[in-house]
Amino acid sequence: MSMSLFWNLETQALALAERGKQVSLIQTNYKYNGILKTIQVDFNEKIVLTTKWGHSFEIETPRANNWSPIEGRKVVYLDQKDWSLFSLALSNPTEVSEKEREACFKLADLVKENKIILPFSMAHFMETYRWAKDERRNQLAAHLFEFSKGWQMVNPVEVRLLEIKSTFRDDFTPLNKEEVFSLAPYSLESNNSFLSPLGLEDLPEEVQASSKQAIALVGTIETLMEEDRTFLDKNTQWAEANQAFTKNIHSGDLTQKQIKAAIDLMFMQDIGTEAVNAVMQFERVYSLDEFKKWVMNFIKNDLPKTPTLALHREIYQDKHRNAKITWSPNDLIDTMYMTVAASYADYLVGERSLTHYLKNGAARYNRSSNHIFKNIVELIEELK
């Protein structure tokens, strides 16, 4: 079936065509903010979105209801600093070094040649949204959408929940990267329920998937590129709590063994929501004492099996054991997202100190860290 959908957001008209002939016209009621102009969906092929500034984003669509058609391509996850450099090299090549420019151009070519997938995540969304300068922010946002082609990393809260659930099976099997990198609507979010604008429910069932994907992208793009934004202060409570905890464990007479145990319990508190949800669904734990027993067993026997959580725990251990460490709000985002990427992406490029922590953590579990790099130049050398 050769079907397509064309949605003009300015007029709110949504036309469905089959073999080039219009078969239906729906009037939608979407709260349009003027960023996107048109959306064209060629089902099982691509989605093309245009903005008022002339951007055109071509997005991949699911294949036969497969939301993760990776199809042998390598997944490369870039930290925010590296997306920023990548965007700057493409838009203002003279502002980066020759080596960086060549590496970024090569990375762009690999995406265009369909050899790699360059996903974006909620971490990229949040950091980019906070940029005050509209021109630079929109430039980076445009490159995020252009080169990710709609690929997203599933929210770490969901990944951690799935990892905990997987430990309940007798034949433990870790997640695969198709479960972590996806084209599915709202994969970025921890609560990815879908709310459709008026009219979508009237479309034929076979065209629903790409339509939902397109509409989800509309909200993401328009939020990230809107000019009148509400700036939210960074939540400092997590960093303050960890700073106080580091101070407390180093101010008493705790042994190294006691310090390690205390850090593990702090770590479990940090993933408490996911742990409680998983336990209540699968373990039938009905009392606080039973939950405490589960926690101790999980730390000793199950945590080392989990790709993301085990790395997260090691970073916690390393940082809290350093009495001089300074915790910042960004540490939470960096640790959550980079541990997922380090565990499931084929390649990861990140900030120097965090890649150091990741490599140390991987070594303790006898895992390879050869896929972790400090910059795009190093990555391209490896890909050659």
List keywords for this structure.
four-stranded parallel sheet; alpha/beta; six-stranded antiparallel sheet; 14% strand; 384 residues
Could you characterize what this model shows?
- The structure is a single chain.
- The protein is α/β, with parallel strands linked by helices and about 375 residues long.
- It has 2 domains: about 1-65 and about 200-225, no CATH class; about 65-195 and about 235-384, no CATH class.
- Helix content is about 50%, strand content about 15%.
- The protein has 14 helices and 12 strands.
- Strands 3-2-1-4-5-6 form a 6-stranded antiparallel sheet. A 4-stranded parallel sheet has the order 8-7-11-12.
- A hairpin with a 2-residue loop joins strand 2 (about 15-20) and strand 3.
- Helix 7 (about 235-250) packs across helix 12 (about 330-345).
- The radius of gyration is 23 Å and the shape is globular.
